[in-house]
Amino acid sequence: MFSRVGARPAPRCPAPTVVLVHGQVISSLYMVPTARLLARDYAVLAPDLPGFGLSAKPRAVLSVPELADALAAWMEASGLRSAALVANSLGCQVVADLAARRPELVEALVLAGPTMDREARTAWAQVGRWLRDWSGERPSLALAHLRDFALAGPRRSWRTFRYALADRIEDKLPRVEAPALVVRGERDPIVPQRWAEEVAGLLPRGRLVVIPGGPHCVNYSTPGAFTRVVRAFLATV
Questions:
Q1: Residues whose CB falls within 8 Å of the CB of residue 28, separated by 6 or more in sequence, listed in order
Q2: Rounded Cα–Cα distance for residues 67 and 93 (Å)
Q3: Which residues, other chains included, contact 39 with Cβ-Cβ below 8 Å and sequence gap of 6+?
Q4: What is the pLDDT of residues 16-31, one digit of tens each?
């Protein structure tokens, strides 16, 4: 597994290591704007999950639990006993699965734009919402998506999407022990306010913050506002 690594901050910072987990058919590349800001205060790592970005491409397409297992194995191989996991979109499903099954690895969770809304769990509904989101994102996000789609390939991209649709994050959230923050961009059509509130409510130690004017990928298109929210939350953990 390939990962991007931030410069280690001053030793005086008593902060958890932050692991940034990317979403559907994209890599840690679009986590860089947030990583650069968080790296001023935290040790930051942003891996590419197996099959995506610059990581190895296993022949089998991994399900959400299998991606969570790969993330756990990577953390252990990297010497991380635990970390604060900050995820976007499909990454939220991966880290929620990990937190529910391996609570010892997770100090805190930040779920930015968590998928999938259980009232719109169809390919047509999700693709339609995804297309509506593009007007609110930075134009350069399209280039990152195209690059990473080419690296992952259409077969892996489609199968991963199907796995994401079938994954019931709502059944796992009540088993998450770590403090958790749900972050929604105010203009995110993929994650409506109703669903964001439901996700936060299902988490035993969850709460919700809405970023004014933010789209789905707040980590890329509004990194300053997103990072401020993450810093404030981690200061309470």
A1: 2, 3, 4, 20, 22, 35, 46, 47, 48, 53
A2: 10
A3: 6, 7, 9
A4: 899 999 999 899 999 9
- The Cβ of residue 102 has, within 10 Å, a number of other Cβ atoms equal to 16
Distances (CA, A) of 180 to 165, 176, 188, 192: 22, 8, 20, 18
* Separation in Å, CA 188 to CA 52, 104, 115, 193: 24, 32, 11, 9
Mean pLDDT of 199-215: 97
One-letter amino acid identity for 55? Answer: S
Q: Distance of CA 46 to CAs 53, 134, 198, Å?
A: 11, 24, 27
Q: Please, are residues 21 and 49 in contact by the beta-carbon 8 Å criterion?
A: yes
Q: pLDDT tens across 148-172, in order?
A: 999 999 999 999 999 999 999 999 9
pLDDT in tens, 58-87: 999 999 999 999 999 999 999 999 999 999
Mean pLDDT over 22-42 rounds to 94
What is the pLDDT, as a whole number, of residue 15?
A: 73
**In Å, how far are 5, 9, 173, 175, 195 from 182, measured between CA atoms?**
24, 26, 11, 16, 11
User: Residue 19: how many CA atoms within 13 Å on its side-chain side?
Assistant: 30
Strand order in the sheet with 3-5: 3-5, 44-47, 18-21, 83-88, 106-112, 180-185, 206-211
